[in-house]
Design a protein that fits this description.
The structure is a single chain. This protein is an alpha+beta fold and about 350 residues long. It is built from 13 helices and 10 strands.
């Protein structure tokens, strides 16, 4: 009989229901493996076929903020017309610098809106330096400072453009969110396994790494030509990477250092990358640890013959002991043979 004191604890998931993740990154200290980060990853070609994979990339997961570029595509299709820097902000998890907060205000002002029309959660700026500066000036948690405020300002603006109600724009039944859901289905080629709510309050879809990689490959390839919504969003993000994240952020660095690369991260260890030829990479770190996300991503990019020499500082991180390096965080040897990866595309 379960003790009443333990009755509130949820029943653990059965082992067969847990994703079969693989060891993707390891941290060593003086030659001993200290920590292991498990996860799943996939790389795809332009038509969505698998190039390489590790773990269980077909297990449903929540892409979190990596969905933002897809949500931005839906809004552009619905008539949202912003300068490129503000469109990049609409797809951002920004650090909360003045340029980000001012950008969200510009989106609102262009459409006769105010911060009071935002329906995202309140928070302090996401960036460490930005948060410290905000607090030193007496700032508190606000919707404008929260890292998704650019997206929410764009969502409210899209409602104004289409004469949709601004109030309640986060309701899954709202015309805006219905359009987003259809766009996500089209770009990923997947029906969501289930839906939930993201930290900022936006509807969130459970998809697979393969579906998300397919979507990012489409966006990145579209940026090279044409006037589609996909092209507009991808070009804006690539031209204004500091608006997508911020100074000192790895996603901004990725897009600055690798020409044509499209990148977006998400909470809980999610990373998406699209390349100009339509290839794409999707990574999910199972424990949600952020530090393993980039070493794994850079390792896969290298396997795709992308020149990752400018990314050496993102591929590993030193482990310190007494202020001196005594170990390393780096990607594990997780890449399987192409034959194993191709099995994912079997009917």
């Amino acid at each position: 009989m379960i003790s009443p004191a333990l009755a509130h604890i949820p029943t653990p998931l059965a082992p067969e229901r847990l994703p079969q993740h693989a060891p993707l990154a390891v941290q060593t200290r003086d030659g001993l493996v200290e920590s292991v980060h498990y996860g799943s990853a996939i790389a795809t070609v332009a038509d969505g076929r698998t190039l390489l994979a590790a773990g269980e990339p077909l297990a449903p997961f929540y892409p979190r903020s990596a969905l933002k570029p897809l949500q931005a595509v839906a809004m552009v299709r619905a008539g949202l017309d912003l300068p490129a820097d503000l469109l990049a902000l609409a797809a951002a998890s920004h650090s909360g610098a003045a340029t980000h907060r001012d950008g969200a205000l510009r989106i609102l002002d262009l459409h006769g809106l105010t911060p009071g029309d935002l329906e995202n959660s309140t928070d302090l700026p996401y960036g460490v330096r930005e948060r410290e500066e905000w607090l030193s000036g007496g700032g508190q948690a606000t919707r404008l400072a929260q890292n998704c405020s650019g997206k929410h300002a764009a969502m409210a603006a899209t409602c104004v453009i289409n004469d949709w109600p601004v109030q309640g724009y986060l309701d899954p039944a709202h015309p805006l969110q219905q359009l987003v859901a259809r766009t996500v289905l089209e770009l990923t080629g997947e029906e969501p396994e289930r839906t939930s709510t993201d930290g900022c309050g936006t509807p969130l879809f459970a998809l697979t790494l393969r579906g998300m990689a397919r979507a990012f490959g489409r966006l990145a390839a579209a940026a090279g030509s044409g006037g589609s919504a996909e092209a507009a969003v991808a070009r804006a993000m690539r031209r204004h990477p500091v608006m997508v994240a911020g100074e000192g952020r790895d996603v901004t660095a990725l897009m600055r250092l690798v020409p044509g690369l499209l990148a977006k991260d998400g909470f809980e260890g999610v990373q998406l990358v699209g390349l100009p030829d339509g290839r794409a990479v999707a990574v999910k770190i199972s424990d949600g640890g952020d530090r393993a996300r980039l070493p794994v991503t850079v390792r896969i990019l290298a396997a795709l013959d992308v020149d990752t020499s400018p990314l050496a500082h993102l591929a590993t991180a030193p482990v310190l002991g007494g202020g001196r390096p005594v170990g390393l965080l780096q990607a594990a040897d997780f890449l399987p043979s192409p034959k194993t990866s191709n099995a994912l595309d079997a009917p």
